[in-house]
From TrEMBL:
The lineage of its organism: Bacteria, Bacillati, Bacillota, Bacilli, Bacillales. Pfam families: ArsP_1 (PF03773). It comes from the Bacteria. The keyword Cell membrane applies. InterPro entries: DUF318, UPF0718. Its main location: membrane. This is Permease. Belongs to the UPF0718 family. The chain crosses the membrane at residues 6-24, 45-67, 87-108, 120-144, 150-173, 227-245, 251-272, 279-300, 320-342. Keywords: Cell membrane, Membrane, Transmembrane, Transmembrane helix.
Length: 343
């Protein structure tokens, strides 16, 4: 095993050794390119996105590790409402108790699903939690002090979309959507709820680590490394898009009753802002776009952006993530358009 590992390391180091003279020869050009204004902006935006999201991701993995210790499968099943409508309503309001950003939500929910939480409740919590919480509520009020209807519409539409998708998952998803499920879980639909026929087994951390502080931090570190690589890739690509694509060009694409919604939703996806700060960005467009496009930006971003898509793909099956993304886009568009007509 050690010989195989050394050979793998050698296969990486040998090509790197040939790159050294090339880098030395091009050092002055590389230094000039690295110090260019565009790359400086990429670095600044990347660091800003990462530092904004990393604390919430860290909170998420620490909560995930605590749940590994103190939350059992039996406890999760006892606390899960038998009625699917009740379960969706409770999950939609859990963000009030657990105000976690979307970056920290996914590791927490993955842990709860391994403990036995049904998929429809987990999905509802993932979608509503980053929006329906007191921190985001306060931030939105501060960003739009003279327009409280924006805050109310954001909270209401986010809850409605999350609850609707949760019910859709309950009706149509028959298998555990987790990518690395430890056991095949069959959910049988009864008159009132899904019952776990074969509950998922404990994962590797349950078997390999005792419940002490060392195992707690090992588990948290593994979770953080596993999720942060997707955050880094998403933040880097987002920084490049923000740097090399002019915002004026993007706004020019947003003229029109439908194009404005498409632009603001796409803008939210690309910017990948934290839900605690995106309202201040949206306020800069308050004199350019109507209420509906602003709401679509504020609701879609925390539910679906570039970095969270990578995290979802690392946790759930690809087919499930595609269906989930389509449902989010359609419902947010329809809901924000309806709000614009009514308000």
């Amino acid at each position: 095993m050690k010989l195989a590992a050394n050979m793998k390391l050698l296969s990486i180091l040998v090509p790197c050794a040939f790159l050294v003279p090339v880098l030395i020869t091009m050092s002055s050009d590389l230094k000039q390119a690295w110090n260019s204004e565009a790359l400086q902006n990429v670095k600044t935006v990347f660091i800003g996105i990462f530092l904004e999201a990393a604390p919430f991701l860290l909170i998420g993995v620490l909560l995930s590790s605590l749940m590994q210790w103190f939350v059992s499968e039996e406890m999760v099943r006892k606390l899960t409402p038998n009625n699917p409508v009740g379960g969706v309503l409770v999950a939609g309001l859990l963000g009030i108790i657990f105000p976690i950003c979307e970056c920290g939500m996914i590791p927490v929910v993955r842990r709860l699903m391994h403990k036995g939480m049904p998929a429809y409740i987990a999905v509802t919590f993932i979608l509503s939690g980053p929006v329906v919480n007191p921190i985001v509520f306060t931030a939105t009020l501060l960003a739009f002090p003279s327009h409280p209807e924006i805050t109310i519409a954001r909270m209401g539409l986010a809850f409605a979309v999350a609850a609707s998708i949760g019910l859709l998952v309950y009706l149509f998803v028959r298998q555990n959507p987790l990518r690395r499920a430890k056991a095949v879980v069959t959910e049988v639909k009864t008159h009132s709820a899904f019952k776990m026929v074969h509950p998922p087994k404990h994962d590797d951390h349950d078997h390999n680590h005792e419940k002490n502080w060392r195992s707690f931090f090992i588990h948290a570190g593994d979770e953080f490394v596993d999720m942060s690589k997707y955050l880094v890739i998403g933040a880097l690509i987002t920084a490049c898009i923000q740097t090399f694509i002019s915002r004026n060009d993007l706004i020019a694409l947003g003229n029109g009753p439908v194009a404005s919604y498409v632009f603001m939703m796409g803008f939210a996806y690309v910017l990948s802002l934290c839900s605690t700060s995106d309202a201040f960005v949206a306020s800069a467009f308050s004199h350019t776009f109507a209420l509906g496009p602003l709401i679509s930006f504020l609701v879609l971003g925390p539910m679906l952006d570039f970095k969270s898509t990578l995290m979802l793909l690392s946790t759930f099956r690809t087919r499930f993530v595609i269906g989930l993304s389509i449902a989010i886009i359609v419902l947010v568009f329809a809901g924000s358009w309806l709000i614009n007509l009514l308000v």
